[in-house]
# Entry
Amino acid sequence: MAQAPVTTRGRGGRAGTWYLFLVPALLLYSLFVVYPLLTGLSYSVFSWKGTVRDAFVGVDNYVGLFTNEAFRSKLLPALGHNLALFAGTMLVQNTMGLAFALAFSRARRGKRALQIIFATPYLVNPLVIGYLWTLLLSPTFGPANTLLRAIGPDELAKPWLGDPSTALPMVILITTWQWVGFPMLLFSAAIGGIPAEYAEAARVDGASSWRVFWHITLPLLRPAIGTITVLSFIGSMNTFALVYALGGSSGGPAGSTDVLGLLFYRAAFASGDINAVGTASALAVFLFTFIFGTTILLNRILRQGEEAM
Amino acid sequence: MTPRRGAVMVPLMLWGYALVAMIPLFVMVLGSLRPTQDLFNDPIGLPNKLYLSNYTRAWTEASFSTYVLNSVVVVTGAVILGAAVSVLAAYPLGRRKFTGRGFFIGYFISGMTLPGHFGVLPLFYLLDGLNLVDSRLGLMLVYAAGSVPFNVFVLSAFFRQLPGELDEAAALDGAGPFATFRHIMLPLVRPAIATVVVFQFVPLWNDFFYPLVLLRDESKLTIPVGLTHFFGRFQNDWGTLFAGLVMTTLPLVILFGIATRQIVAGLTAGMNR
# Structure
């Protein structure tokens, strides 16, 4: 080891110096990241009177999340919307990303330029994207509805974001529009890593394109599918700015796009409840555990699938 | 699908979607160059002359000048502070053996998986106690602190790759740890510092949650929360709204243009974990 002499000297006289190098980063990170996260845990086991900590109540705040009818009637739909967003992302965005990646694996010209174009919306602030689509989809002056009126029957032109039955599907489509470049690039990289001889050999044996995809390409893409599934889950659970721009802090219209992030924000800063701090802290810990736990579980299930092959 | 039909259909589908991906962004830019009345009369149309009043209105009347200045100050301050404290810590963590090194590495890196948002309530009261709520300095410190785990991770890996003889030679010449760090090490890790600075800039520029919670005063807002106020006040002036959206997006497009290499380096640093 070339470093050995320096190491010995450092250990001898000046070991303390190295701690000095760490101090600024330790202070900043401990104070503003670690301390709040740990304190959040303790907040959740007390009842609160406004900003004043009251009595130790154990798990009461947690139980309250599911027994307090006023809160539960918000929590369950919000959770459902996050999960619907995850399902929609998997079905629409990631399927499209895979289809594009397969198409690119055959395309000869313009591949690089097209991939950049597909990924461009991903660079734009989600808040900007939300507001942009609010304008585009506006029932009165929105270009999208003007276009729909011009090319199709009038029923197609409607307040897509203003109607509770279509608002959440629109959120899924807009999310897809922003993010589709990401699974596309990951799948492209994974497909590029599959030796071409596999598919050729199968074709020589008379397999159709579909069978080659189903029996050779898809199984070999399992690790990529696993990664994308986990990242999509985390992304769907943490969505905030986009839905805020599309439907405001209450997830309008009529709560049809309310999600956990918005609910947490309202519980913490806009509920007016005397025990808001206790409830919101319990919600934060619950959400963290749920998201983190499910991520680990998903990882384990997907890994097992890989090993079983 | 026969090969011949596929040869036509596949590029057609790809270029078709390219239009879907780009048209909304074109509409945003074109809309920002047309008077609002034009937009209402003819939602799908092109600007007929160079019309920049939307931009001047958004910049002055809608206080975009204030938002942009605040964003530049807060985000630049945060990435510089975050990089400075991290590069100091990364040097001994990446190159030296001392008691507790493994613990400190774990302590810093574990922050990469923790979603800081969940600590926002205690953070709010902590900043309140320090008189840093509704303060640009407070937001800057929060951002800088949040950037430490990723920065330490990338920078300490970079320090580790530098040849070992460097500090040895400096030590033989009688240079102390701080002199070695400043004159030998710091110049060598400059590319890595550029990577973490650029890479942190993008999410902080776009961040909406912390300023939403921590800032109140209109004169202190950064662009994202400013944008939500702006959309409330100018909801009937579409031309100005489009101009505001373009102004929010443009700095990042420019940054990507000049620093693609640093951004890609940051992405791959995160992936090769």
Q: What stands out?
A: Chain B has a mean pLDDT of 88. The first helix of chain B runs from residue 3 to 32. Chain B has one domain: 54-271. Residues 54-271 of chain B form a domain with the MetI-like fold fold (CATH 1.10.3720.10).
